[in-house]
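Q: Could you fold this chain for me?
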Amino acid sequence: PEQYGGLGLDFGYNAIINEEFSYGTDVATGFSLQTDIVANYLISYGSEEQKQHWLPKLVSGEVVTAIAMTEPGTGSDLQAVRTSAIADGDDYIVNGSKIFITNGYLCDISVVVVKTGDPSKGAESISLLLIEADRPGFSKGRPLKKVGMKGQDTCELFFENVRVPKSNLIGMEGMGFIMLMKELAWERLMIGIICAAGCEQVLAHTLAYVRDRKVFGKPVASYQNTKFKLAEMRSETQVARVFVDKCIEEQIKGALQVDAAAAAKYWVSDLMSKVVDECVQLHGGYGFMLEYPVAQAYIDTRANRIYGGTNEIMKELISRTF
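A: Sure. Below is the predicted structure, expressed as structure tokens.
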């Protein structure tokens, strides 16, 4: 919103930005996490004081943000998180740890999924808490050594008796799981958007390559196998584009359903892995050389099927709507 330093644009603008990052093969920049994910929790559920204090700093880049959900041993099961926030007067005392946190190493503040009240109540005890990185007891592990996406500062976060004022609570106690389910729909569609654009990008690179590369005196593109593979990939990529664009329309209207977002995330990320693998094969040995975009995509895009909730979890969410 403009009153907090933004331009007041709809999600269509965010979709374009995410597509352009993907067309440029950028998997390191954490802009989308800041503007598409963390900001939305504050805009939708934060207090006026929280919005006035933090949103202008998100816009200016003065503050780098993260969202800390996943814990060692819990994976995509958010109801099983163990990080606790125990009430102590006007504060919470936070203890626990998080893992695989994007922007974690550089973050100045993180939205942290915690258990408040009775932890045995599962989803009903989940809350969201803003925790500044300079609070005593908040520490960060070294950036994790990932297979791909190496430019992204993914790390562990640790909380040892971190005192956080109750005014840092986002929304109400026990409402965290509901907020997560609503906002995760856009995050999952965002992955679908990135993957749809990624399919288009890697397919374009491969088409140019097979037209230029010759085998037995003829361009690789002239062989029937190549033609059929390209036809299959282009057709499936076009199907993905139509579905993702429809989901973007629903998001702009505020009508995006959880199952549709889950379908976009799982199906299009699965498709991207398939497309990238086929394109590596069409490049032959050069497809395994990192100076070629298709090889970089091979190692950078695999995580799309894991983060934002694994694709197996996406199928579980879809099945619950039957």
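A (continued): The chain has a mean pLDDT of 94.
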